[in-house]
Design a protein that fits this description.
It contains 2 helices and 8 strands. With about 150 residues, the protein is mainly beta. The chain has a single domain (about 25-130), classed as PH-domain like (Roll). A hairpin with a 2-residue loop joins β2 (about 35-45) and β3 (about 50-55).
């Protein structure tokens, strides 16, 4: 995993503000499922959090930023394609990276090479969880990537 990747500044807007002691790890163009649509933007990995920032156009059309602590991620996987009219505009026609959070919510991202992004994220989560013994939970209908304690 690279230590940092350059952040596009014009299309994705200014990069998110980092917390004290937090560092960039990587950035990937992604669409985040928000309601019945996929919002375009950037998914940022940092040493403490995952952050999604909508691109300039989607932000003006109601796309919302999102973030969570790495410790809030319970499981990772690939959400299978869904040929449903209900998911037509939310990225359901493509495999999506799925994050299952400890509060029971899930986040879906259309992202290039989702299996590779999951491998990178699993390594980041493993580094963040070295001191805690958090076991992943299996998710239905998904290929699960284990987070080793």
């Amino acid at each position: 995993m690279s230590t940092s990747t350059p952040l596009p500044e014009k299309w994705f807007g200014p990069p998110p503000v980092l917390l004290d002691g937090e560092s960039w790890v990587s950035h990937h163009a992604a669409n985040r499922t928000q309601g019945k649509r996929a919002v375009g933007g950037g998914l940022h990995y940092t040493t403490h959090r995952l952050l999604f920032t909508p691109n300039v156009i989607d932000a003006r059309l109601g796309g919302k930023p999102w973030s969570c602590s790495l410790h809030d991620v319970q499981a990772l996987g690939i959400e299978p394609r869904s040929f449903s009219l209900l998911e037509l505009f939310s990225g359901g026609l493509a495999e999506r990276m799925r994050l299952e959070l400890r509060d029971g919510t899930r986040e879906l991202f259309v992202i290039r090479k989702p299996a590779e992004r999951i491998t990178e994220l699993a390594a980041l989560l493993e580094a963040a969880d070295k001191d805690s013994q958090v076991a992943p939970s299996p998710l239905p209908e998904m290929r699960v990537v284990d987070r080793k304690p």
